[in-house]
Fold this protein.
Amino acid sequence: MWFDVFAVRMIVELLLFGALLVGVYFLLHMTVLKLPRCTAATKLHGKTVIVTGANTGIGKTTAIDLARRGARVILACRDKGRGEAAVQEIIQETGNKQVIFMQLDLASLKSVRSFVDNFLKSEPRLDILINNAGQVWQTVEKHEDGFGMMFGVNHLGHFLLTVLLLDQLKESGPSRVVTVASKAHEMGKVDFNCLMTHRDLVPGNSDYEIFQGYCHSKLCNVLFTYELAKRLEGTEVTCYSLHPGFIKTELGRHATSWWNVLLNTVSLFSVDAESGAQTTLHCALEQGIEHLSGHYFTCCAPVLKINPKARDDAVAKKLWELSESFCGLS
């Protein structure tokens, strides 16, 4: 008899403890983990936007919001099937039929050039370029031009894409370039010796080196934006980089071993794609932030006290010049 009472008591205590954990979890999501929302009322009728990696995650959510505002939205994605499916979903959800798929594989400089050629032949203007696509993990696939995948996709592909579209952006001004980086850039560095010898940001493929490579590539995003802003001074094109928050998306779908377990555990404290897209939308749409071109944003606000390595003029300039060389632009 005493055992039954003890068992019931234990079950009740476990249920209460579980309810408490669930309550704390939801409280965190409603307070600490709740991200600010983009409040811009900007309409985009007659405007053209490119969003890379727009078939899933915050890229797709961003594209949906822009389509609702009346923009002509180009989904620049590698996978044709998933890209075309996303087009139909966005058209159905927003009623905007000006949503188009154009194939872009950021792991191929040839594909980037082909995308730009096709875009310039079919589209007379470009008002917003959102460099959203990214990898947080290496895959078995190789970069077509021999670069490390995360360096090639997260930085180099977007670098070439942006540079080749700059004339169109200038002609359509005022226009913007928004690059999705990450707070992980704070743990990154740019090792030019490694880039020259390995054509990558890290020399190996251990789990730790892969994580380092992601951090390094996100620092490249921030430095690229910083240098781009200086080169765009005197034009009507402005640019911004950002941390979207820790988002539960498919970005880490190729992770392996215990890193996958870690990502899944930490994802309990992540936010959804809609919340994660808000700072991207803020940088793309908010009026009056033009004087903040080159800045890094988070939670829909500029970070005014940023790590000095993210504002290193010499490193930013050298990275730009090396990227030009890698892309055959100089």
